[in-house]
Amino acid sequence: MTSSELKELAVGMGEKPFRGAQLADWIYRKAVLNYEEMTNLPAAFIARLQEAGITPTPLRVVDHRRSTDDVDKLLMDAGDGNVFESVLLPYEDRVSCCLSSQVGCPMGCTFCATGLGGFTRNLSAGEIVGQYLALQSLSPRRVSHVVFMGMGEPLLNYDNLLAAIRLLHEEVKLSLRHITVSTVGLVTGIERLAKEEMPIHLALSLHSPLDDVRDRLMPVNQKWPVQVVVQAMRDYHAITGRKVTFEYLLIHEVNDTPEQADALADLVKGLPCVVNLIPFNYVDTEHGFARPHRERVRQFKGRLAGRGVNVTERVERGHDIAAACGQLAGQHQGKFARRGGVTSLPVSS
Asked: By CB atoms within 10 Å of each CB, which of 208, 214, 339, 347 scores lowest?
């Protein structure tokens, strides 16, 4: 609910509008998620809120783990038993968080822990923002950056994603330029997001510049091949002025070859972008994927840099708490469920 909606709620319960504004301040600006700490709200107002079943957050923390490198991972549900994850990532210069947009994921990427458990449902805007607030409540510093790289394909939950982004911007007061949406490459969603006139950072999970390789890794490539989705990223940059990111998961002897490094350099030539390399974090996907040797990562990165590509390598954290997307949820459910073959994709035409 927005501040305006909370003011209307307060008036409907016989209070002055400013009580709703106070409630919004506690929730969105202070990340206080229990009424007992909201010391300036009348007890009668709190009682009426509780009687109406209105809580500061719809979420319940099922599991909380902290790594040896200070990464916090929360496993949460909204009362229906379906769990999803979010991660708090403190750095020297900022605090970032990774949020989920769906319970599970329907996209069928063959390397992904989340997809192994299948898809259950979309998360509501309140459930998405609730993850941020739960993580902010753990941090003594402001969580200034948000990345939608958790469980799910954000652009398949477009309306709730945009509603959550607007709440984070208008109520929590996060800069839109500090919000990143990551997609497997839903071209219609990318085109729609570009038209929002919001300077959101966009990241594409590319993982190969070659259609035959990307087809194996990501079924979505059969609908929108490499050239098509990269053109959509070029168009997004042209419309928004934002530099884009290409996420590239390096898998041993699958997509870490010198030939693919050269093809990737050709593919992104002239586009203001960053290629972010991510060595494969082992998950038993039944495809025999393995993490590349350190020397192959170094060579791939060096080959891109030598071609003038702005290339980085993700700083990996949280290994000891299963911080990679989908790992903790799979452990909690006592499974990594096995998908059948993906025969149709849940994407818009």
From this structure: 339
Domain 1-56 architecture: Orthogonal Bundle (1.10)
Pairing of strands 84-90, 95-98: antiparallel
Coil, strand or helix: which one is 15?
Answer: coil
**String of DSSP letters for 134-187:** HHHTT-SS---EEEE-SSS-GGGGHHHHHHHHHHHHHTS---GGGEEEEES--H
Torsions phi, psi of 263, nearest 5?
-65, -35
Residues 6+ apart with CB under 8 A from 311: 274, 275, 276, 277, 301, 304, 305
**Domain spans of the chain?**
1-56, 57-332
Whose structure tokens read 């060096």?
A: 302
At the top level of CATH, the class of 57-332 is alpha beta
First-to-last alpha carbon distance for the chain, in angstroms, is 32
Q: Any bridge partners for residue 179, and if so which?
A: 146
- Supply the residues annotated as catalytic: 85, 325
99-124 confidence digits (pLDDT tens): 999 999 999 999 987 877 789 999 99
Q: pLDDT, tens digit, for every residue of 51-76? A: 999 999 989 999 999 998 899 999 99
Whether the Cβ atoms of residue 183 and residue 159 lie closer than 8 Å to each other: no
Sign of CA dihedral 266, 270, 271, 273: positive
Q: What is the pTM of this model?
A: 0.89
What secondary structure letter does DSSP report for 37? G
d(CA 23, CA 6) in angstroms, rounded, equals: 7
